[in-house]
Amino acid sequence: MKTNDEIMDILDRLKRENNLSISEIARRVGMAKSAVSKYFTRQRKFPLNRIEDFANAFNVSADYILEYGKKQTYSEEIINVPVIQSITNDSTIIAEASPETYYPTASFDLPKGQLFYFKMNDISMEPIIPKEANVLIKVQNKTNDEQIVAVTLNDNPTLFLRKIRKQDGFILLLAENPDYAPIIVTKEDSMKVVGKAIRVSYDI
């Protein structure tokens, strides 16, 4: 089990990499800014029962935080994960879609479940997700507020990424880039949540 300082070192690094303020982190995890600030300044011990909330705030898995840096023994098997930009059937996404290419990924570094990569083709999610980045998507249709999800809307099979926020009677799909207006999804719209973004990879 990692110590409190080790966990906070990882969260500090994720905070810097994602360029997030304490206020934004507090909003994403649904906690008071003062409480979150005390975790990062080591004035209060980090609550392990909130690890999932903080992992979601940084778009990583809880295991990534708890296991980061841990020595492991593993086979260096490389898996070609498909890169998919559109779908034809949400019940068999990987089988029905036609992968444009594949992104080689070490098998030990992959979470369980059905996975694919989405290549970011615009700047709507910058600075968190830069254009041309490969975003690892875990296929699932259930998500929480403030998670970044891959969705399709109405009759367009093309996937796109947005942060989801459920409101009373409608859903907001939010870009990180303020130049992109929120998308309001009502009951008249047909929105399919294909999966949750869990990791970003890109070449320098």
Give a brief description.
The protein is built from six helices and nine strands; from the N terminus they run αααααβαββββββββ. The protein is α+β, with helices and mostly antiparallel strands and 204 residues long.
Can you lay out the helices and strands and say which pair or pack?
Layout: H1 4-17, H2 22-29, H3 33-40, H4 51-57, H5 62-67, E1 78-83, H6 93-96, E2 101-106, E3 115-119, E4 134-139, E5 148-153, E6 156-167, E7 170-174, E8 183-185, E9 191-201
Antiparallel strand pairs: 1-2, 3-4, 4-9, 5-6, 5-9, 6-7, 7-8
Helix pairs in contact: 2-3
GO molecular function, one term: DNA binding
Domain HTH cro/C1-type: 11-65
Pfam families: HTH_3, Peptidase_S24
Structure keywords:
single chain, alpha+beta, 434 Repressor (Amino-terminal Domain), seven-stranded antiparallel β-sheet, 23% helix, globular, Peptidase_S24_S26A/B/C
Q: How would you explain this protein's 3D organization?
A:
By secondary structure, this protein is an alpha+beta fold. The protein folds into 2 domains: 4-67, Orthogonal Bundle (434 Repressor (Amino-terminal Domain)), CATH 1.10.260.40; 78-201, Ribbon (Umud Fragment, subunit A), CATH 2.10.109.10. Helix content is 23%, strand content 29%. It has 6 helices and 9 strands; from the N terminus they run H-H-H-H-H-E-H-E-E-E-E-E-E-E-E. It has helices spanning 4-17, 22-29, 33-40, 51-57, 62-67, 93-96, and strands at 78-83, 101-106, 115-119, 134-139, 148-153, 156-167, 170-174, 183-185, 191-201. A 7-stranded antiparallel β-sheet has the order 3-4-9-5-6-7-8, with no helix packed on it. Strand 5 (148-153) and strand 6 form a beta hairpin. Helix 2 (22-29) crosses helix 3. The chain starts with a helix and ends with a strand. Mean pLDDT is 85; it is low at 71-75. Keywords: DNA-binding, Transcription, Transcription regulation. Pfam families: HTH_3, Peptidase_S24. InterPro entries: Cro/C1-type_HTH (IPR001387), Lambda_DNA-bd_dom_sf (IPR010982), LexA-like (IPR039418), LexA/Signal_pep-like_sf (IPR036286), Peptidase_S24_S26A/B/C (IPR015927). One of its GO terms (molecular function) is DNA binding. This is Xre family DNA-binding protein.
